[in-house]
């Protein structure tokens, strides 16, 4: 391992050595991740560290950083280590009780906005499997006259989503509850969002270790064919959607035909499908048939 140019005990030396270890562990963006971890350990903006290579790192922060680095080298997700991530320009708290929001899921928000160009048309939003609350909170930010309900079967996730809503100033417009999909939900909604578990059970061990070993299996495992959660959600949609309402469901790669067929069997019509930035059909838009 090459020598680092800055003196031991300084920001530059810590970043250099951490970057080398992260690269050796085949972790992408090693320099950026090293800076994010050290910024978290120092409780400072990571961007400031670029010009502070000779800044001494206090012993307590050095010990914290060493622990964070050890865990990251074990492929624990960066977001779980820092406790935060971004989605739709929102800063959100995350925890191992929730799936880490992905940029791919922003396609659902884009699809919702395309479905309702008149923002005032959405007054009630439901988010099934809310996790961090990312989809619901992004929607409430875009539909200013709406209120929303987020449901998650994991009580810790529902509680975290509630904290995110309060932190973003949306606590008065969002409610959260722990429940099994829509079993405990009554009434009708203009917009229903859902990112269900859709990975086939047999495929989970082959996922990257950050996902397979650390993210909650309940948010990943869609059963033998990956469609179990869709069946449960689609069963509930006819009684939950308003006459002009739309449901937007996240899809796994190649799942559009199967999920569309399940929807049609329940009297629902496909109203559109939006791709993510990688060109994968990601957000299926459904309405009453």
TrEMBL record:
UniProt-listed CDD domains: AdoMet_MTases
Binding site for S-adenosyl-L-methionine: 129-133, 152, 181, 195
Domain Methyltransferase small: from-to ranges: 115-201
Residues involved in substrate binding: 195-198
Gene3D superfamilies: DNA helicase RuvA subunit, C-terminal domain, Vaccinia Virus protein VP39
Pfam family, one: MTS
Top-level lineage group: Bacteria
GO molecular function, a single term: peptide chain release factor N(5)-glutamine methyltransferase activity
UniProt keywords, alphabetically: Methyltransferase, S-adenosyl-L-methionine, Transferase
Catalytic activity: L-glutaminyl-[peptide chain release factor] + S-adenosyl-L-methionine = N(5)-methyl-L-glutaminyl-[peptide chain release factor] + S-adenosyl-L-homocysteine + H(+)
EC number: 2.1.1.297
Any one Gene Ontology BP term: methylation
Domain named Release factor glutamine methyltransferase N-terminal: residues: 17-83
HAMAP family: RF_methyltr_PrmC
Job description of the protein: Methylates the class 1 translation termination release factors RF1/PrfA and RF2/PrfB on the glutamine residue of the universally conserved GGQ motif.
PANTHER family the UniProt entry points to: HEMK METHYLTRANSFERASE (PTHR18895), MTRF1L RELEASE FACTOR GLUTAMINE METHYLTRANSFERASE (PTHR18895:SF74)
Similarity-based family: Belongs to the protein N5-glutamine methyltransferase family. PrmC subfamily.
Protein's recorded name: Release factor glutamine methyltransferase
